[in-house]
Design brief:
By secondary structure, this protein is of the alpha+beta class. The chain has a domain of about 60 residues: Membrane-bound Lytic Murein Transglycosylase D, Chain A. Helices cover about 45% and strands about 15% of the residues. A two-stranded antiparallel sheet has the order 1-2. Strands 3-4 form a two-stranded antiparallel ribbon. β1 and β2 form a beta hairpin. The chain is rod-shaped. The relative contact order is 0.10.
Amino acid sequence: MNRMTALQAQNSIGRTIYGNRVYENRYNGLDRNAISERRIQTNRLRRKREMQKNFFLTLMTICFAMTLAFSVNVILSNAKDQDEPVYYKYYSSIVVESGDTLWSIAREHMGSQYETTSDYVKEVMQMNSLTNDKIVAGQHLVIPYYSAQFME
């Protein structure tokens, strides 16, 4: 029996006869093209499901990252309560009197916006181009101060 005759001898229950031997067909009588097509379709479906899964995971990761970033931003926000007054920074010119020092001027004019008196003195020195904290009577100084009142 030649090969063509053996394929023609395949019956409906999936057996192929080659000469005196009978072979069981694992694919229940399907020809090779049908088997290949089934395998291709199965692989396409598997790849499609894998791509959908990867897309979903990527989308969820992006959403999680955005939610986390927003939450951290809200927590770390330095937003102030509406009850706290807003202070505006202004400048004034003063004339140094006898016995005044930068430190005494700082204690008199500095508000709670400065952490230390030294910070205020450094700012006054910088604004007035002073190289040290020595001042003399009659000298004009520009000093900063804060007020809750807005002046136009």
